[in-house]
Backbone:
């Protein structure tokens, strides 16, 4: 079997060693006499899997004890609808900062439940930048401020100021909520700066179908809004994320990914690898003399999702066909933007990006 380098934005590549372990465990889990997908979520075998996954994630992300961790069905979009229900009073103001497609999606999920204030937006410029923090029109009485840490489609990312980027601002007494779906565990993160962070697993943490929510425990004391029990984070926490039958296979696979990341050196090591991958790819784009271009302001370019365009889009189909033949898949850009997009999450090795760069340069020589 020859596996391609998979640049898909999500569902995204998983580590091969994780897939092989899952393949081995599919038929029988330990001495349970049944597959991991067949045993009860209430049985001791799966309860041990769930506990190990949470412990490993806490270690991986250095999650403080005063933060709760939930593993919930669905993806980030589901959590975008649940945040206002759990943390805002009916009609209370909530501030949203829009830096791309998924930030706008978050507002669509929330607007029915809150007095939604777009505190800042880069939409007028095509979502190629992040508004300066001094321009944000924040509300002192807001339930929370919501941002998207990394925009998977538009390729815009909040980065530390020390890295030349736009850092997450201090929002004072109003808690900062952030969608980390496509950048979680890609570099060290001070979780104590946030009231809550959430992430669909299918990019950096595991398979599609499960999400991680990390929330400061004191925020769970808020009454929120009338909601069904299944949508209540407090009840989910009390039931250890098992208020109903959880997606056990997805949870198990995510746990394997957490353990793999720890064994590989943790987020500090992946930060090093991710910086090198991004450096290689952006250097190839910027050094192409305009044959390839990335339109995002250099200070906020994503390390995880790199959209790029060919100078002549008549070559797009040939580029994608040739890439597939070269063992490089998942490069077609999102329909919102077109062009190409390379998603280079933790599971993508540096060698995969090097192979893409070699192909891009060879393609330019033939068609430039």
Residues:
């Amino acid at each position: 079997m020859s596996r391609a380098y998979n640049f898909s934005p999500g569902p995204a590549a998983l580590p091969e060693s994780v897939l092989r372990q899952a393949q081995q465990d599919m038929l029988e889990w330990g001495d349970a006499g049944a597959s991991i997908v067949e045993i009860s979520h209430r049985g001791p075998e799966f309860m041990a899997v769930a506990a190990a996954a949470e412990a490993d994630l806490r270690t991986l992300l250095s999650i403080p004890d005063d933060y709760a961790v939930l593993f919930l069905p669905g993806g980030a979009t589901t959590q975008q609808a649940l945040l206002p229900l759990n943390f805002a009073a009916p009609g209370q103001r909530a501030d949203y900062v829009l830096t791309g497609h998924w930030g706008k999606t978050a507002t669509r999920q929330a607007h029915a439940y809150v007095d939604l204030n777009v505190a800042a937006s880069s939409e007028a410029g095509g979502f190629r930048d992040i508004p300066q923090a001094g321009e944000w029109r924040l509300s002192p009485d807001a339930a929370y401020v919501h941002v998207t840490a990394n925009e998977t489609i538009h390729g815009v990312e909040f980065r530390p100021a020390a890295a030349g980027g736009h850092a997450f601002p201090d929002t004072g007494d109003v808690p900062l909520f952030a969608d980390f779906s496509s950048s979680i565990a890609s570099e060290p993160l001070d979780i104590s700066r946030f009231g809550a962070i959430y992430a669909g697993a299918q990019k950096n943490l595991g398979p599609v179908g499960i999400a991680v929510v990390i929330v400061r425990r004191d925020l769970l004391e808020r009454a929120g809004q009338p909601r069904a029990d299944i949508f209540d984070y407090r009840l989910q926490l009390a039931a250890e994320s098992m208020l109903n039958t959880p997606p056990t296979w997805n949870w198990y696979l995510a746990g394997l990914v957490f353990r793999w990341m720890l064994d590989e050196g943790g987020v500090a090591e992946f930060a090093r690898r991710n910086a090198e991958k991004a450096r290689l790819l952006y250097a190839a784009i910027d050094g192409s003399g305009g044959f390839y271009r990335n339109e995002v302001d250099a200070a906020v370019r994503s390390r995880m999702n790199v959209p790029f365009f060919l100078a002549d889009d008549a070559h797009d189909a040939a580029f994608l066909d040739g890439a597939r033949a070269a063992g490089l898949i998942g490069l077609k850009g999102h329909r919102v933007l077109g062009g190409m997009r390379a998603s280079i999450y933790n599971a993508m090795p540096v060698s995969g990006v090097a192979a893409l760069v070699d192909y891009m340069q060879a393609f330019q020589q033939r068609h430039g």
Summary: The chain has two domains: 17-263, 267-367.
